[in-house]
Design brief:
By secondary structure, the protein is an alpha+beta fold. It is about 35% helix and about 20% strand. The chain contains five helices and ten strands; from the N terminus they run βββαβββαββββααα. The strands form three sheets. It has a five-stranded antiparallel β-sheet. Strands 6-8-9 form a three-stranded antiparallel β-sheet, covered by helices on one side. Strands 7-10 form a two-stranded antiparallel sheet. Helix 2 packs antiparallel against helix 3 and helix 3 crosses helix 4. It is globular. The termini are far apart. About 25% of the residues are buried.
Length: about 220
């Protein structure tokens, strides 16, 4: 459990909207109280009764399973439960995002690298690692928003797709470190995140198709 702000005194107090979901299958996100604890809720209930409701429920279940698997880990928020199948409650993490931070020490990125290594060792990739999805709480980086996270089956850890997802996570971490600390990747780090030929080929083919499609 991460260090949190003072406990809530009233679970019925009005919720504070943090982000309005505007894109397809993007939830409303608000801060509220759950069982007397400050919480963040990702709410997909506007899709109730629509053809997208099963997909929204699947997103909630998937993220809940990931957070449940990471229970007790200081680099991820604690799962507080699901609400009606279309909302996910998790621990509120005080602090600031990496994107909003004015100054971040290299030690934060050393911890983040360690956390990412542990996550990957558990067969989980975040797949949306950027500054707004990393909170810094008391000098400790906490990964948030596991909507896009993927847990590879035990028989698939060395599959090329799994390796590419891990590579992408590491590459995004190095980009954030460069932007915020000016620390460039070492030759070894650059080699680890270099895309293999098949990835480069897929990207070139996609760009060509997109240009053709757009006319």
């Amino acid at each position: 459990m991460n260090t949190t702000v003072a406990s809530c005194v009233d679970d019925t107090a009005p919720a504070e909207l943090l982000k309005r979901g505007e894109r397809l299958l993007e939830p409303d996100v608000y801060r509220t109280c759950l069982n007397g604890q400050p919480a963040v809720v990702k709410d997909y209930t506007r899709y109730r009764g629509t053809p997208l409701s099963p997909i929204a429920r699947l997103l909630v279940r998937r993220e809940a399973r990931i957070l449940q698997r990471l229970s007790g880990w200081k680099h991820a928020p604690a799962l507080l439960g699901t609400i009606g199948g279309l909302a996910l409650g998790m621990e509120f993490i005080p602090g600031q995002t990496l994107s909003a931070a004015q100054s971040v020490g290299i030690e934060v990125f050393e911890q983040l690298q360690f956390a990412l290594d542990r996550l990957h060792a558990a067969g989980i990739t975040h797949n949306d690692l950027h500054g707004t999805n990393v909170m810094v709480n008391g000098g400790v980086p906490v990964l948030v928003d596991f909507t896009s996270a993927w847990r590879s089956p035990r028989w698939l850890p060395v599959h090329p797709v799994s390796r590419q997802l891990r590579r992408s996570d590491r590459k995004n971490l190095l980009k954030m470190r460069l932007r915020l600390t000016g620390t460039r990747p070492s030759a070894s780090e650059a080699a680890q995140v270099a895309d293999p030929r098949w990835v480069a080929g897929v990207r070139v083919a996609w760009k060509r198709f997109y240009r053709w499609f757009k006319g």
